[in-house]
Write a structure and sequence with these properties.
Keywords: Membrane, Transmembrane, Transmembrane helix. Helix content is 70%, strand content 0%. By secondary structure, the chain is mainly alpha-helical. The protein has one domain.
Length: 152
């Protein structure tokens, strides 16, 4: 993988983060007068709590398992380029599930003005940042050896 592939993944990650943060900021501005933080299921008239946060957390876990499953499907004898392409696909799938969980919960916040829905997007942003693709991280994840690491 040349550095442009790594850079592309980092740009995609930035786009995912920007989408989540910008949508959350817009909904915060729209709901700033009525925003509240309430954990009570009985007080939620929208019927979205606790359904949306639980689905969101489930999507986060599912995205992580899909990432591992896609990496596990890489053939043992695959060359570095095939491994890197597989990593890119798995990375995008995991990031898409994180973003989907976030956007769904931000819509829940937009509808209900309950800030509890912003917990899942906060978790997703932290996970996106923590799983940011780095040269060493890709090398370690794909178990690349010396000649192949030079492609990074």
């Amino acid at each position: 993988m040349n550095s442009s592939k790594l850079k592309a993944m980092q740009i995609i990650l930035g786009a995912f983060c920007f989408a989540i943060i910008s949508f959350a900021m817009v909904t915060l501005l729209l709901n700033k007068e009525t925003m509240h933080f309430n954990l009570s299921i009985a007080s939620d008239r929208s019927g979205l709590y606790p359904l949306f946060p639980l689905i969101g957390l489930g999507l986060i876990v599912f995205g992580r398992s899909m990432f591992n499953k896609l990496l596990g499907k890489l053939p043992e004898g695959a060359n570095a380029d095939e491994k890197i392409a597989g990593y890119q696909a798995a990375f995008i799938v995991r990031s898409a599930f994180l973003e989907g969980a976030s956007l769904m919960n931000i819509v829940g916040f937009l509808i209900s003005a309950n800030a509890i829905f912003l917990v899942v997007p906060a978790i997703a942003i932290v996970l996106l940042i923590l799983t940011r693709p780095s040269r060493q991280g890709v090398i370690d994840t794909l178990n690349l050896s010396y000649p192949d690491t030079e492609k990074l």
